[in-house]
Amino acid sequence: MSQRFSILTILSLACLSPVFAIGKEDDGSFRSEKKVAAASDASGDVLLDSAIAAFDNYQSITANTRLQVHMRGHHLFGPGTYLQKGPTDRRQVRSEMVLRGRAGKFTFTQINDSNRLWLFEETPETSKLRLIDLQRLRDSGVLTENSLGKSTSFDALRIRGLAGLMKGIQDSFRFGRAVKIEWNEKSVWAMRGVWRDSMLKQMLGIEEGELKDSKWQDRLPHWAPTEIGLLLDAKTLFPYRFEFLTHIGDNPQGKSQLEPIAILELLEIRFDAVIDDSQFDRPSDIRPTDVTKNYLRKANKSTK
């Protein structure tokens, strides 16, 4: 279920969340970049739904990406690229991220050519290439549009790219009012989401009454954000920034203090540019491991 929000998922996407204190005490995130404009507001849930639908308006998307990960004393930073081409049902996606930290250089490349999903990882110790046969999953009924919309389905993020990521966020988080602000000389919608009660109960195995106790925040897996935020372009609703925040304790006033565990930014975005099909070729010549059976088993288990 919530593994789609693990840091490994973020890295694999090579592409993931912004949070601004909307209606809450400022936690200091991006203070130097944030400036509230004369403002209007809107439903965050409605804006997110429209943002997901807007992806179908583009023949292609290209963007540079920038990712930061801060977790358990480890800090990774690096650039990447995101390419998307074609309609939803036959979408091609390439996401790549090169991250560096004290442990060395890590490369994560993920390519969906609409028939195969290639997952390539390079670390200082090893290189690994995995293959998932998407046509086989389609033939098994796993990659239907309905199944891609389910939180527990086969990883829609990897198949649908950014739209799949945002759909996963929508399924798991509920958003309050979005506020229009000026950010980096752009007019954007800033909004913050919190876990849906149904997802928390499923993930933590807790009852309704326990959700009122803030201690549930301390029971989240280390990779799971406490809250999530988005910055969407005020006109196109394209996501500029994602930020995952984790609870680090309460301040003297008893309010939750949050800090980012991952920040993803999309830069130099272009719509409807020509993308050569070679960008979606197999990313490495090393021998791949076919893991299609594993994902079939996972998908079938989630439907029972």
Structure description:
- The protein is an alpha+beta fold.
- The chain has a single domain (2-299), classed as Lipoprotein localisation LolA/LolB/LppX (outer membrane lipoprotein receptor (LolB), chain A, Clam), CATH 2.50.20.10.
- The chain is 21% helix and 41% strand.
- The protein contains eight helices and 14 strands.
- It has helices at residues 7-13, 44-54, 134-139, 145-148, 156-160, 162-172, 197-204, 292-302; strands at 34-43, 60-71, 74-85, 92-101, 104-112, 116-122, 127-133, 173-175, 177-183, 186-195, 227-233, 239-250, 256-271, 289-290.
- Strands 1, 2, 3, 4, 5, 6, 7, 8, 9, 10, 11, 12, 13 and 14 form a 14-stranded mixed β-sheet that branches.
- A hairpin with a 2-residue loop joins β4 and β5 (104-112).
- The radius of gyration is 19 Å and the shape is globular.
- The chain starts with 6 loop residues before the first helix and ends with a helix.
- The model is unreliable at 1-39 and 146-154 (pLDDT under 50).
| Element-level helix/strand string | HEHEEEEEEHHHHEEEHEEEEH
Q: Please tell me the CATH architecture by its name.
A: Clam
Helix content: 10-25%
Number of helices: 8
User: How big a fraction of the residues is strand?
Assistant: 35-45%
| Largest sheet, strands/sense/barrel | 14 strands, mixed
Fold-level CATH name: outer membrane lipoprotein receptor (LolB), chain A
CATH homologous superfamily (4th level) name: Lipoprotein localisation LolA/LolB/LppX
CATH top-level class: Mainly Beta
Average of the residue pLDDT scores: 79
Work out the radius of gyration.
19 Å
Question: How far apart are the termini?
Answer: 14 Å
Overall, the morphology is globular
Low-confidence stretches: 1-39, 146-154
Structural class, please? alpha+beta
Number of strands: 14
How many domains make up the 3D coordinates?
1
